[in-house]
Amino acid sequence: MTHRREESRRTGRRLLLLALAVTAVIAGLVITTVREIRSGDRRVRRMMVARARAVSDILAESSRHGLETYTHWDRELRRRLLDNALWLAAVDSLGGLDPAGLTALARRHGLHHILLFDADGRLAASSLPDTAAFRPPHDPAALLAPVLSGQRRVLLLTGRNAAGLGGAGLAVAVHRAAGGAVVAAASAAALREALVKVGPGHLIQTLGAGHGIRYAAVQDSTRILAASARVPALPRPADDPHLAGLTGGGTDVAVRELVTDAGPVFEVTHRLLIPGRPPLWLRIGMDGSVLQETRAAIRRDAVWRAVLLLLLLGVGIAMLLAWQRQTVLQREIVRARREIAAHEAAARRAEKLSAMGALASGVAHEIRNPLNSIHMLAQRLERRDGLDDEVRRWAEHIRDESGRIEQIVRQFLQFARPRAPQWEALPTAAVVERAARVAADACARRARLELDVADVELTTDRQLLTEIVDNLVRNACQAVSEGGLIRVTGRRDGDRYVIEVADDGPGVPAELRERIFDLYFTTRPDGTGLGLGLASQMAGALGGTLALADPPPGGPPGARFVVTLPLRGGADV
C-alpha cells in the first residue's frame, strides 16, 4: 500500500511536470507562430516597399535623364532655329527669298512657320496658311524692336513671347539687311509632345497600366503634376497626416494600406529630390491583394507547422503516457504476482498449520488425561507425611513439569480450535500502544520502545489484536540486544489499517524467512515455535495478514513484521 501510494505520488509529479512541459511547448509554439507571422508580414512589406522604391528610383532617374535629354534637344533645336533664321536672312539679303514659297520652305526645313516683318514691324509675308487671321496678342513691333531697330542682330523668343508670334513654342528673329526681321519658329505643341515623351508623365501612364500597380501619381506642394488612370482623390502633401514624416524632413518613404474601388492598395509614397526643382512626391499604389495573399499564405504555413508540431507533440505525449501506463501495469503485474505468491504461501502455511493443529489437538487429547493423573499423583505424593526430602523434591519437579506440559497442551488446543472473533469498534491507538508497552515492560533486555500509532476507529477483536501485538513485540524483544530499539507504528492505508513492528536486531536470515511462521519452528533454545504461528492465525481470523517485510537494500539490519487488517471487520471479512 505504501509503495502504491508513493508510486501514485511519483506519477502525479510526473504528470504535473509533463503538463507544465506541454504548456511551455504550446506557449512557445504560439509565440513562435505569432513571431513568424509578424516576421513574414514585415518581410512582405519590406519587399513591397523595396519594389515601390525601385520603381520610384527608376522614375526619378528616368525623369532626370529625360529632362537632360529634353534640355539637350531644346539646345539643339534652338541652334537649328538660329541656323535656319540666319540662312533665311542671308538668302533674303541676296534677294533670293520668295515670299510665296515660304510654306514649302518651312516644310522642307522642319519649321513650324516663317514670318517676314518690315522695318515698321508689320507682317510682310508668312508661311502660315491664314495670314489674314494672324492677330498676335502682342504687338510684334514691340517684341521685335531690338531686331527691327538693328540694336541686336539675333533675338530668341520663348514662352508667351514666342506664342505671340503665331503660337510658336520657340522662335528666333534675325535682322533683315533691308530692315525688318526674319522669324523662324518651332511648334509649341511639338515642344509639349517632346517634353511629355521624355518627362515622367509618359512613364507614369505606362506604370499605371502595368501589372501589380493600381496607380501612380507625382505631386508637388500644390497639385498633381502627372497621374495614371484610376488614381483616387489625393490631398495635398501638407494636408495629408500620412505624409507628415516626409514633409517634415524625416524618412523619405511613407507606407499605408487602404481600400479603393479597385480593391486593396498598398501605397508607398517616395519623396523625390531632383536637382534644380522643388521636392516632388511620388505615390505608387501597388496591388494590395498580393500582400494579403502572401500574408494568408504565411499564416497558413505557420499554422500548419504549428498544428503538425502539436500533432507530433500529442503523439509523443500519447506514447509517453502509454509507456508510463505500461510501466505502471508491469509494476502492478509484478506486485500482483508477489501478492499471489504471498497468498499462496499463506494458504500453504495455513494448510500446514491446520494439519499440524489437528495433529496437535489429537495428541493433546491423548496426553491430557494421563498428564492430569500424573499431576494429581505428584501433588498427593508431595503432601504425604514422612516423605524423604529427595523424593519430595522429585515430586515437586514432576508437578512443575506436568504443569508446563499442561500449558503447552492448552496452546495446542488454542491453536487447533481458535475462538471466533468478538467484533467491536476500538480506538486503535489505545489498544496497540497498551499491548506494546506491556510486552516491552516484560522484556528482560530493557528494550527502548518508540510508538507512532495513528488513532483510527477499527472494527476488530480487542483480545486477538492485543495478542498479535504482544506476540510481535515479545518476539522483537527476544531479537534485540540490551537497550535495543523496538519501533511500533500504525497508519491508515485506504480501507486497511497497517501495524508495523520493527527492531534493530540481526534480522531473519534469508534461508529461514519461509519457515518462521511454521508451527514449532524456533531458533531459540527456550522457544516453543508457537508465537508467530499463532499471531499469523489470529491475523487471518480478523480478515488480515501477517508478513515479514523485505529488508531495504543497503538499509539497517533488523526485522520488520507488517500486520494488515480491514478497517471494518466482521460481516465484511
Corresponding CATH architecture of the domain at 421-573 = 2-Layer Sandwich
Beta-strand residue percentage: 15-25%
| Tally of alpha and pi helices | 13
Main sheet summary: 5 strands, antiparallel
Number of strands: 17
The gross shape turns out to be rod-shaped
Radius of gyration: 62 Å
Mean pLDDT: 78
CATH class of the domain at 421-573: Alpha Beta
Structural class per helix/strand content? alpha+beta
Give the uncertain stretches in residue-range form.
none
Any overview of this molecule?
It contains 13 helices and 17 strands. It is an alpha+beta fold. Among the domains are: 97-128 and 137-193, 2-Layer Sandwich (Beta-Lactamase), CATH 3.30.450; 421-573, 2-Layer Sandwich (Heat Shock Protein 90). The strands form four sheets. It has a five-stranded antiparallel beta sheet. It has a five-stranded antiparallel beta sheet with strand order 7-6-10-9-8. A five-stranded mixed beta sheet has the order 12-14-15-17-16. The mean pLDDT is 78.
Give a quick summary of the entry:
The protein has 573 residues and is an alpha+beta fold.
SSE layout and pairings?
Blueprint: H1 2-93, H2 102-108, E1 113-117, E2 123-126, H3 140-143, H4 145-148, E3 154-158, H5 159-163, E4 168-175, E5 181-187, H6 188-198, H7 200-208, E6 213-219, E7 224-227, H8 244-247, E8 253-260, E9 263-272, E10 280-287, H9 288-383, H10 389-416, E11 424-427, H11 428-441, E12 448-453, E13 457-460, H12 462-479, E14 485-493, E15 496-503, H13 531-541, E16 545-548, E17 560-566
Parallel strand pairs: 12-14
Antiparallel strand pairs: 1-2, 1-5, 3-4, 4-5, 6-7, 6-10, 8-9, 9-10, 11-13, 14-15, 15-17, 16-17
Helix pairs in contact: 1-6, 1-9, 9-10, 11-12, 12-13
